[in-house]
Design goal:
mainly beta; Immunoglobulin-like; five-stranded mixed sheet; three-stranded antiparallel sheet; 12% helix
């Protein structure tokens, strides 16, 4: 009996229509994709987020050094709404890496901004 109920619940859950994701598109870029000069240098990362429908979504910045920024939630009040979000990273040595605009509540791939810093 339990197996039949569990199977029925799984069937009902899987037949429910999937909800359209809130975020339609996201992009991330670094202020200096390639930098050669004096260090320390401050890189600014800009993310652009465009919604497909209204609702809440949560994002954070992740970096190649393992840092994860605080999560922030945005409430989209209508379809096709856009936001620009920023993060900064000060680097003191030659390195290459990335910063990622990670939208936790969405199934699409995160937007990644890659960079190279070469200190003189």
């Amino acid at each position: 009996m339990r197996t039949a109920i569990a199977a029925l619940l799984c069937t009902v859950a899987s037949s429910a229509p999937a909800k359209t994701p809130i975020v339609r598109w996201s992009h991330a870029e670094a202020s200096k994709k390639i930098y050669l000069g004096k260090c320390p240098v401050r890189l600014v990362f800009t993310g652009t987020i465009l919604t497909a429908r209204k609702g809440d979504f949560t994002f954070a910045w992740k970096r190649s050094d393992g840092f994860v920024g605080r999560s922030r939630t945005i409430h989209a009040t209508r379809r096709v709404q856009g936001w620009r979000v920023h993060d900064e990273w000060e680097l003191s040595s030659t390195t290459s890496g990335w910063a990622q605009l990670w939208i936790q509540s969405e199934p699409h791939a995160p937007a990644v901004a890659r960079f190279q810093v070469r200190c003189k």
